[in-house]
Every structure is written in structure tokens, then in C-alpha cells.
Specification:
- Strands 2, 4, 5, 6, 9, 10 and 11 form a seven-stranded mixed sheet that branches. Strands 1-3-8-7 form a four-stranded antiparallel sheet, with no helix packed on it.
- It has no helices and eleven strands.
- It is mostly beta strands.
- Helices cover 0% and strands 48% of the residues.
Length: 124
């Protein structure tokens, strides 16, 4: 059974850090492009970052300089390290997998598999 499971979300104060994990089962993550997306209440889903199967990475302007995406193929897991979190980062974060080399977060339509999401709340 193909599955993506996110974890690591929670409540954190502004300026704090969280590391999200996206663990895959039923397929080998190594051969997939992985994207992180988020959706805040009342807003459309937006891309955050992605990592290609060749390990090239991409960040949206909101994530650049604060977030780091990485993958551990041995653990079949992708991570999103989020530092200097801001209240506007509050959202449900989703990871998604696409059976291709290069990733994008312009659109989520290329992604075949999605996780259930993990809540990130940044508040004092």
C-alpha cells in the first residue's frame, strides 16, 4: 500500500524551529520528486519547497533562507527543517511524491501521492 506520512508539526513560538518528516511506504522515495505544500485556513494551497530525485532543491521566496529540505533515501524519508518560524507559516503542511526526476511547487497536479498533513502553528 502506497502511503506518505507526515510528522513533526506542532505549536512553536515565533522564531522557533520545527523539523517535518515525510515517511514513505509501499514505494521507493529515492526515485520520486518530493514537494512540500501548505494550506492555511481560508487560503489556497501553496508550494513551499521541493527536492528532485537528483537532490536538487527549490524554495519559494517565503521559505528561502529559513527552510531546508533534504532526503534520506536509506530511511525512505524527506525532511523539511523550518527555522525562524513566523505566524504566517501557520498552516497544515503536506508532502507529496511525483514519479519524475525534477520537482516543482508551481502546481501540485504532477504529484501522484499525498500525505494526510501535519499542523504547524506559530504563535506566542
Amino acid at each position: 500500500q502506497v502511503q506518505l506520512v507526515e510528522s513533526g508539526g506542532g505549536l512553536v513560538q515565533p522564531g522557533g524551529s520545527l523539523r517535518l518528516s515525510c515517511a514513505a511506504s509501499g514505494f521507493t522515495l529515492e526515485y520520486y520528486a518530493i514537494g512540500w505544500f501548505r494550506q492555511a485556513p481560508g487560503k489556497e494551497r501553496e508550494g513551499v519547497s521541493c527536492i528532485s530525485s537528483n537532490k536538487s532543491t527549490y524554495y519559494t521566496d517565503s521559505a528561502k533562507g529559513r527552510f531546508t529540505i533534504s532526503r534520506d533515501n536509506a530511511k525512505n524519508t524527506v525532511y523539511l527543517q523550518m527555522n525562524n518560524l513566523k505566524p504566517e507559516d501557520t498552516a497544515v503542511y503536506y508532502c507529496a511524491a511525483a514519479p519524475r526526476i525534477l520537482c516543482t511547487v508551481v502546481s501540485g497536479t504532477m504529484y501522484a501521492y499525498w500525505g494526510q498533513g501535519t499542523q504547524v502553528t506559530v504563535s506566542s
